[in-house]
Write a structure and sequence with these properties.
The complex is a heterodimer of chains A (121) and B (750). Chain A is an alpha/beta fold and 121 residues long. Helix content of chain A is 18%, strand content 42%. Chain A is built from 1 helix and 10 strands; from the N terminus they run αββββββββββ. In chain A, strands 1-4-10-9-6-7 form a 6-stranded mixed β-sheet, with no helix packed on it. Chain A has a 4-stranded mixed β-sheet with strand order 3-2-5-8, with no helix packed on it. Chain B is built from 28 helices and 26 strands. In chain B, a hairpin with a 2-residue loop joins strand 18 and strand 19. The chains are: A alpha/beta (121), B alpha+beta (750). At the A-B interface, helix 1, strand 3, strand 7 and strand 8 of A face helix 3, helix 6, helix 12, helix 13 and helix 15 of B.
């Protein structure tokens, strides 16, 4: 095998491992909601992506979409039966009152971008 | 209302940036005549105004806010909907322009570089520099949205379809640009210098074209809810201080007296105080025949008054009205997730990174093992892999079908609580109907009164009724109502009852003038050792006629019989027939004795009957049938049968009044039509079929075409996928999923 092929093989291996690590091994940074509301900005994903709320406490989540991509135009919180259209640059509030502990995912309408609500005690 | 004069209203303000905006807005509000207080919150972007509705209102607020450069969103739901509509139109227009430019330029580039066409192309199109000039605006203007979505996503360490398109087209574009600027370098490594601007441009054009059609089609999936929101009345003619005033619907409060004239929309839910009319409720309940309304009847907001004029009292306003509850229920159902979606969810969360890894592997394999020029093969196949992958189809497969399915249900008066209920409903093979109030109208009437021996002081027939009615006065059972009503028709004076006790499933007991009176079914008499000897034939004959027989005993001695019959609902027989036609077993459950129950079941065409079931045992019976391995739907009124509804696989409640959010029910039939049970099952079956087809297509497409793009067929047949065809396949795949879901709109559920 020529030197170029060896380099391509090696670079591809590194590239594949990097892709795996970069997208699939990321650690969630959990933001604990201490007040009764939290702002989540949407721009290429959710910021913050993972929030922690208390069980039985009503929490308002204010979504603000700054990303014009059609993929993010809706937010879905399936465990709370919520699907909302998010007009660009306009806050849309959804209220949740989690009755059970656990992890509840939310996503965009096409299920490409994800976030998580951790319900603690 | 705070008092007679003042009212409070909160609404959103758009365009605020700082604390001074708050001050300006508060001062502006306070300057309006009639406003006594105003509070603006920057964090929530909300204003709360206390004002006199006779002097100020939405119009004043709106213009005052606009005069200082902001925008008041007085109806958030409507505003979001307007915004959504505007944004969609903007998006569609923008996409159309970008698609036109990309495809026109792309066509010229294909002409100038595609081997079969290149000979016929003018020289200018074959010039690499001209091609670079043409491709650049497509790559960075039309394709801007791919970059715009990819860069912030990468910051979040996430990837989606845009990421794939961005990588794919960027590779093709920059390779081509390199070839244009440094053709000699490429030649030196043994590759013929030929750019692939046509590939990058056409891919962008076709994928945007797919998005354009998808955006148009997707708008149709949420049409039902928009239609429902559009039904809401805007104003109401309210009688205040003896005058009729038109006020915005948001200002109507419970207790307001409202006048409705022929042809007008009834603004909110309420009860008629005066007048008669016929009301078309089809838009809300799906019930096609207009219903006649008179004093005391309930009217539903947003329905149309047809013939008469009436005055009614508002009993439910704002979020409590039936229409608002329906909208909320449908919205919630559309936000829920069907269990069948789990696999697609799992796959889509790993999909894009895996495709990127596969693309890298494709490049390496073709470069190392492929024929010469191996670099070109490797690059084009890598681009094809990135472009053909379509995670959107997987993401859209289930939710679009659920949205159309639940919307179709709502249009027909079938409200489905969530996607899970809709999914389970297609497996139903047994439907249990509660009898009273579900198969029957729940308004029984006394048909026969039999006196078996003289009761002191009264004529024989009247005395039996009088004692029974006196006793039943304290009961809430529907049979009791029938007996009391009959006594009222005969202007009977009822006796005072002491020690009254209801025995659920049996009857009632009490004391009148120190005599112990019992009224109930045969089981009660057996329990109390009261003989009905000599009357068995009579009881049997009445029961064979489908009547419920109540036996009256005074001091443990049989005194008479009262037979009560309930009328079957007009849609009962047809509803049962429709279920049998679909091969679904139908069961009737009732507290009536076996003979009465069988007679009624026969009338309605039901073959399996569970009779003499105490109310608290209905749930147990449902579980027993489930133990037979059946998937059971329980149909009831949602109030008395709540535990049985909750125990069944799918609880179906028949709507009553203006309450639609029946907690224990998975499906509520607001049209009160029993034929809708079969319709709901059919709707579920068709929706599930659509979802399965969508998922099969979405998965099948990706599983079969990604390997083809990688070149899996090349060693055997020499087939490779041109990236342009890959983009065409990708664009059609997500549209086909949405279009397939939209087909549900045209499906017939009868």
């Amino acid at each position: 095998m020529g030197i170029d092929k060896t380099i391509v093989a090696f670079a591809s291996l590194i590239g594949a491992l990097f892709t795996f690590w970069f997208f699939l091994m990321k650690k969630d940074k959990v933001i604990k909601v201490t007040e009764d509301s939290i702002d989540i900005t949407i721009d290429g994903g959710y910021s913050p992506e993972v929030i922690e709320v208390s069980k039985g406490k009503k929490t308002k989540i204010n979504f603000l979409r700054k990303d014009p991509s059609g993929c993010l135009e809706e937010v879905v919180l399936p465990d709370f039966n919520i699907r909302k259209f998010l007009p660009l640059n306009q806050k849309v509030t959804v209220e949740i009152n989690p009755k059970e502990k656990g992890e509840f995912k939310f996503s965009c309408g096409m299920n490409m971008f994800h976030g998580k609500i951790i319900v603690g005690g | 209302m705070l008092n007679n004069q003042l009212t409070k209203r909160s609404f959103l303000i758009k365009g605020m940036h700082c604390a001074s905006c708050v001050r300006i807005l508060e001062e502006t509000f306070k300057k309006i005549e009639g406003v006594s207080d105003a509070n603006v919150n920057l964090a929530t972007e909300k204003a709360t105004v206390t004002y006199n509705p006779n002097k100020a209102g939405d119009r004043e607020f709106s213009s005052a806010v606009a005069s200082v450069g902001y925008e008041a969103i007085l109806n958030q739901g409507e505003a979001i909907e307007d915004e959504e509509k505007k944004e969609k139109l903007r998006e569609i227009r923008k996409l159309r322009n970008k698609v036109s430019l990309s495809l026109i330029i792309g066509t010229f580039l294909v002409w100038g570089s595609f081997p079969a066409l290149i000979e016929t192309a003018p020289l200018i199109l074959k010039n690499f520099w001209i091609q670079l000039l043409l491709a650049t605006p497509v790559q960075f203007w039309a394709g801007f949205e791919f970059y715009r979505a990819t860069i912030p996503a990468l910051k979040h360490r996430t990837a989606n379809m845009d990421t794939l398109v961005t990588i794919g087209t960027t590779v093709a574009y920059f390779y081509s640009a390199f070839v244009t600027v440094f053709p000699q370098v490429v030649k030196n490594i043994g590759v013929e210098p030929a750019p692939y601007f046509d590939v990058a441009t056409i891919i962008i054009g076709l994928i945007l074209l797919g998005r354009y059609f998808e955006a148009k089609a997707k708008a149709g999936t949420s049409e039902a809810i928009k239609k429902l929101i559009g039904l809401q009345a805007k104003t109401a003619r309210v009688l205040r201080k003896g005058k009729e005033v038109d006020i915005p619907i948001e200002q109507v409060v419970i207790g307001d007296v409202i006048r409705v004239r022929p042809g007008e929309k009834i603004p909110v839910d309420g009860e008629i105080l005066e007048g008669d009319s016929s009301v078309d409720e089809s838009m809300v309940t799906g019930e096609s025949i207009p219903s006649d309304k008179t004093k005391g009847d309930t009217v539903i907001g947003s329905t149309i008054n047809k013939t008469g004029t009436f005055v009614y009292k508002a009993t439910k306003v704002g979020q409590e009205t039936m229409l608002s509850q329906i909208i909320k229920l449908v919205e919630e159902a559309q936000g829920s997730k069907a269990p069948i979606q789990r696999l697609a969810d799992l796959v889509s969360s790993y999909f894009v990174p895996i495709v990127i890894i596969l693309a890298i592997i494709t490049f390496a394999l073709w470069y190392i093992l492929g024929p010469t020029p191996s670099f070109l093969f490797a690059m084009l196949n890598t681009v094809a892999v990135l472009i053909i992958a379509c995670p959107c189809a997987m993401g859209l497969a289930t939710p679009t079908a659920i949205m159309v399915g639940t919307g179709r249900g709502a249009e027909n008066g079938i409200l489905i609580k969530d996607a899970k209920s809709l999914e389970t409903a297609h497996k139903i093979d047994t439907v249990i109907f509660d009898k009273t109030g579900t198969l029957t109208k729940g308004k029984p009437e006394v048909t026969d009164i039999v006196s078996t021996s003289q009761v002191k002081g009264f004529g024989p027939a009247r005395s039996v009724l009088q004692l029974a009615a006196s006793l039943e006065k304290g009961s809430e059972h529907s049979l009791a109502e029938a007996i009391v009503k009959k006594s009222e028709e005969q202007n009977m004076k009822l006796e005072k009852v002491s020690q009254f006790k209801a025995i659920p499933g049996f009857g009632v007991r009490g004391t009148i003038e120190r005599q112990n009176i019992l009224l109930g079914n045969r089981k009660l008499m057996e329990k109390e050792n009261i003989s009905i000897k000599g009357q068995e034939d009579k009881v049997e004959a009445l029961e064979n006629g489908g009547k419920t027989v109540m036996i009256l005993a005074v001091n443990k001695e049989l005194k008479g019989l009262i037979a009560v019959a309930d009328t079957l609902k007009e849609t009962a027989s047809e509803g049962v027939k429709a279920l049998y036609k679909r091969g679904i077993e139908v069961v009737m459950i009732t507290g009536d004795n076996q003979r009465t129950a069988s007679a009624i079941a026969q009338k309605v065409g039901i073959k399996r009957v569970l009779s003499e079931v105490l109310p608290e045992d209905k749930e147990k019976e449902v579980r027993n049938i489930q133990k037979e391995g059946k998937t059971v739907a329980m149909v009831g009124d949602g109030i008395n049968d709540a535990p049985a509804l909750a125990a069944s696989d799918v609880g179906i409640a028949i709507g009553s009044g203006t309450d639609v959010a029946i907690e224990a029910a998975d499906i509520t039939l607001v049209n009160k039509d029993l034929r809708s049970v079969a319709k709901a099952i059919e709707l579920s079956k068709k929706t599930m079929r659509t979802i399965k087809l969508n998922l099969f297509w979405a998965f099948g497409y990706n599983i079969s075409l990604i390997p083809v793009a990688m070149g899996a067929l090349y060693p055997f047949f020499g087939i490779l996928l041109n990236p342009i065809f890959a983009s065409l396949a990708m664009a059609t795949s997500s549209i086909s999923v949405v279009l397939n879901s939209l087909l549900l709109k045209r499906t017939n559920f009868d």
